[in-house]
Amino acid sequence: MIAQHLPVLQIVLPLMAAPICVLIRHPKVVWIWATLVSWLCLPISILLLVQVVESGAIVYELGGWAAPWGIEYRIDMLNAFVLVIVAAVGAVVMPYARRTVAAEIPVSRVYLFYTMLLLCETGLLGITITGDAFNLFVFMEVSSLSSYVLISFGKDRRALTAAYRYLIMGTIGATFYILGVGLMYNATGSLNIHDLSQLIPKLAGSRTVEAALAFLTVGLGLKLALFPLHMWLPNAYTYAPSAVTVFLAATATKVAVYALIRVAYTIFGSVDILNFVPVRDMLMVMALLAMFIGSLVAIYQLNIKRMLAYSSVAQIGYMVLGLSFDTVTGVAAGIIHLFNHAMMKGGLFMVMGAVALQVGSVRLSGMAGLGRKMPLTMAAFVAGGLSLIGVPLTVGFVSKWYLIQAALEKGAWPMAVLIVLSSLLAVIYVWRVVEVIYFRPPNEKTEDATEAPLELLIPIWVLIGASVYFGIDATTTLDVAIAAAKALLGAGS
Amino acid sequence: MDAFPGLLPYWLVIVLMMLGFYIVIAHTNLTKKIIGLNVFQVSVFLLYITMGRVTGGTAPILDEGITVYSNPLPHVLILTAIVVGVATTALGLALVVRIRDAYGTIEDDEIDDLEEQA
What we know:
The structure holds 2 protein chains of 2 kinds. Chain A is an all-alpha fold. Chain A has helices spanning 6-23, 27-55, 77-104, 110-129, 133-151, 158-188, 193-199, 207-223, 232-239, 242-267, 273-276, 279-299, 304-324, 328-359, 370-373, 375-389, 395-409, 413-439, 454-472, 475-491, and strands spanning 58-61, 72-75. Chain A is 77% helix and 2% strand. Chain B is mostly helical. Chain B contains 4 helices and no strands. Chain B has helices at 8-26, 30-52, 72-103, 108-117. In chain B, helix 1 packs antiparallel against helix 2 (30-52) and helix 2 (30-52) packs antiparallel against helix 3 (72-103). The chains are: A mainly alpha, B mainly alpha. The interface between A and B is medium-sized, with 26 and 31 residues.
């Protein structure tokens, strides 16, 4: 009987656990509670993925009310994959969080931190699992509001202005999204995503639907930090507490990319509209700009967290580039990069959190000579960096390979050249840090640094290890990504 | 296309949306930005409610003898969106209070100067 209700359990579990965190004031107990809950969410998401792989899409009607009047949760391959990503990152961040949170957040506020973290996870899981467009907005705001609070927990006072700027831009994005949903409702009378995918094609020529697509794309573009709507991301990732940066970098933008895929390929999939409203071309241009400008700006950063944040902007460009090709390989490349980037960036930001804990600084000067003082942590950084570049035997290579293959399939070999060039830019900014870590003597900041505690090392190596493992044996993740892409494109055009 | 008076609510939506957006962009005072955000959100609410109006329909509350109701779904959607807007405003204002404590000012350009010096 539980198996029947797994979809709603996935949401109800963290949602109900969050207020209980407010009642538990003791920092250690609340951490144990939050860790248990996030560790429970992971098997639920894996079970859902296994169920979808075996028997096709799961449709769960909330409260027994049938769609399109009731809200339904509809889980297909793409959904289930992203659910596993979010749940896995949540499960890995919780054990990592205890030490870093204890160092960065006042003891009296720790219980509030874990409440917000669980709420954020609920919101992200909800966006992924729901089959109703307005329900998506509600969960999007749940996750966004809790992220604003999480970012504002940072020690530096600039965390407050970063959270404020993210709030303004994020709310504008959400409002644009809800405008798009309203216009679609105006035209079709339905809010259910599956239903809309049947009703929208007949109305493809109307201004309402075109305007809806425009608003949805811009709104979600703001949420996923597509260039030039990425202005909130660098400050938010840099000044947030370490655990928050890891969690948000690995999940928040990925889920927004998922929402964009839903809109572009499920709702507007079987519609010619995307050929005469050049959304795909626009996304392609923005993605290319993001790839280059993100990587270029990253090269000049002295704060390593900020460098990784700009690198994220570039990597999101890769994901959206994959989406903008209208082929199975392209969309599969975008989807597989969702997973790969979550592993890579999550691991890299975890390394930076460990450095912040041991050295007290995340600037380039604070990493001098750490290769000898913190060997395992720095080895993880190198592995993550290699993955960012796209060296074979890491997950980064798998994504780039598929992306280049997709570009070549379309005959766009200049684009393949551009993809390789931007990877070379990644070499520059990764090498900059590696050189300081291994080839400079320790300075007064790093002299007394010791290896990161086991509590931090294990989550770091789980994520980095996953990024190496799935780079060597990518069959499982690739199968899921390609199956998801086929389902999306097959249902559409 | 209908005559201008018939489309008045939609014109109001556009005007409010652009006004709200302009306030967010142009004003440097953090609290005024939040006010602009509210105006921006209100325009969206207005759009939804205008859509829900059925000619000759009354408020969507069941009563004997009435056959034509306005569409209740947009009303429900807007209630949700209003609550989200209230939560966002509350959070934004709380952040402004803390920014005031940390920086001593709530003017965007002064905060930028302080941040650059830091």
